[in-house]
């Protein structure tokens, strides 16, 4: 049964049926590593994913942005002046930055936030590259203000139709597609929001 569950997650086929079968076959068996009811909730939400055009429209309407020290930060509109006001440290290089399609010129950072600045159509502006949530950092998606106290189940219930996951290799890590070549990555630990990262790929 365990192998069937793994295959269903990896192939993303017949996921709900496989998880339901796992649950029925393991009735009364305690497994602290598997919360099958939560996985079934994920399967239900993932199955509601809208088509590409509706997905992009919904993502845009969520108006994703960040709040740090009562300052709202919008990707692609963050300025050097804001970084100075927030007393962030300017650095030239950040290790392990993906090279494909995204080559920031410089960065600002705090222990919990990395903001990358790049030039696009002649304008230099910043975007949140990484953020961890332990010192009042907040991400806003629609009507949801998400900080270190934000509940994972609420996230899945609210945004599950926009999410994907590699549950077997990276449980509690969720992806929201950002255009053709980007991802917003949300990681939860102990049921609470732990970190955010944006990624671009070939």
Protein model, in words:
- It is a single chain.
- By secondary structure, this protein is of the alpha+beta class.
- Helix content is 28%, strand content 32%.
- The strands form two sheets. It has an eight-stranded antiparallel beta sheet.
- Strand 9 and strand 10 (173-178) form a beta hairpin.
- The chain is elongated and about 60 Å long.
- The two termini are 35 Å apart.
- The model has no long low-confidence stretch (mean pLDDT 91).
Q: Detail the poorly predicted runs.
A: none
Total strand count, please? 12
Distance between the termini: 35 Å
Helix-strand pattern: HHHHEEHEEEEEEHEEEE
Helix content: 25-40%
Strand order of the main beta sheet, please?
3-4-5-6-12-11-10-9
Topology:
Blueprint: H1 2-11, H2 15-25, H3 36-46, H4 52-62, E1 65-68, E2 71-73, H5 80-85, E3 89-91, E4 106-109, E5 113-120, E6 123-132, E7 138-141, E8 144-146, H6 152-159, E9 163-165, E10 173-178, E11 182-189, E12 192-200
Antiparallel strand pairs: 1-2, 1-7, 3-4, 4-5, 5-6, 6-12, 7-8, 9-10, 10-11, 11-12
Helix pairs in contact: 1-2, 2-3, 3-6
């Amino acid at each position: 049964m365990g192998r069937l569950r793994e295959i269903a997650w990896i192939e993303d086929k017949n996921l709900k049926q496989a998880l339901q079968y796992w649950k029925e076959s393991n009735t009364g068996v305690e497994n602290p590593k598997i919360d099958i009811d939560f996985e079934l909730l994920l399967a239900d939400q993932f199955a509601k994913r809208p088509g590409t055009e509706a997905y992009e429209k919904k993502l845009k309407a969520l108006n994703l942005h960040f709040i740090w020290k009562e300052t709202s930060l919008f990707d692609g509109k963050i300025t050097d002046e804001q970084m100075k006001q927030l007393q962030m440290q300017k650095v030239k290089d950040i290790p392990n930055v993906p090279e494909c399609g995204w080559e920031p010129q410089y960065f600002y950072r705090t222990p919990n936030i990395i903001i990358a600045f790049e030039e696009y159509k002649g304008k230099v502006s910043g975007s949140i590259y990484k953020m961890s949530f332990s010192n009042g950092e907040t991400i806003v998606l629609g009507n949801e203000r998400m900080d270190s106290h934000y509940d994972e189940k609420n996230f899945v219930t609210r945004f599950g139709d926009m999410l994907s996951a590699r549950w077997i290799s990276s449980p509690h890590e969720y992806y929201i597609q950002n255009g053709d070549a980007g991802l917003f990555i949300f990681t939860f630990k102990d049921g609470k929001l732990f970190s955010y990262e944006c990624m671009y790929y070939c």
